[in-house]
Design brief:
Layout (H helix, E strand, L loop, with lengths): L1 H29 L8 E9 L18 E5 L8 E4 L5 E7 L4 E4 L5 E3 L12 E2 L2 E5 L8 H30 L1
Parallel strand pairs: 1-7, 1-8
Antiparallel strand pairs: 1-4, 2-3, 2-5, 6-8
Length: 170
């Protein structure tokens, strides 16, 4: 009786080992090409003092800029990181196409173009930021003052026209 039980157990172990081997083969076959190494992204967020969108000598890095990563380019941010004290960041490794973007610091606008999606090799992606130009807006007092100015100019024009007519009659 003992030998009958052990014979049933051995085929079960062999079947389990065969299933595990098959699963491992399927996992390895589904892994992307080059899955052993991947690629990385690095760059700098910098103060674009001349506004040309490119990192030039003497333009300092900006610490604490949020770098966003969309790991499968579906438009959803999957993770974020902050630039270090010199404005540098490093992300990776990646094994599929990714999208990287930066969030402009308060009071600044991005001067560099967003890069295309990246998917094959390590890349350097820099993000430039310049000061936001503020355009003054008119509040209620400013609009009221503008209306009074226009009214005063209209009255002045009508007064001069009336004086000109009077002088031609005399």
């Amino acid at each position: 009786m003992e030998s009958l039980r052990s014979r049933r157990f051995v085929p079960s172990v062999r079947l389990l080992a065969l299933a595990a081997t098959a699963a491992l083969v399927l996992i390895l076959a589904a892994a992307p090409a080059g899955a052993g190494s991947g690629f990385s992204l690095s760059g700098i967020a910098f103060s674009d003092t001349n506004g040309n969108g490119s990192l030039d000598p003497g333009e300092p890095g900006i610490a604490g800029v949020t770098i966003q990563l969309d790991n499968n380019t579906d438009g959803i941010v999957d993770s974020t990181t902050l630039t270090d004290g010199s404005g540098n960041y490093v992300l990776g490794p990646f094994f599929n196409t990714v999208r990287v973007r930066a969030v402009a610091p308060a009071g600044m606008v991005q001067t560099s173009a967003n890069p295309a999606d990246i998917g094959a090799q390590s890349s350097s992606v820099n993000f430039g930021f310049g000061s936001a130009i503020s355009v003054p807006t008119l509040d209620a007092w400013g609009i009221g003052a503008l209306i009074l100015l226009c009214a005063a100019l209209a009255v002045r024009h009508l007064h001069r026209a009336a004086l000109a007519r009077r002088s031609t009659r005399l």
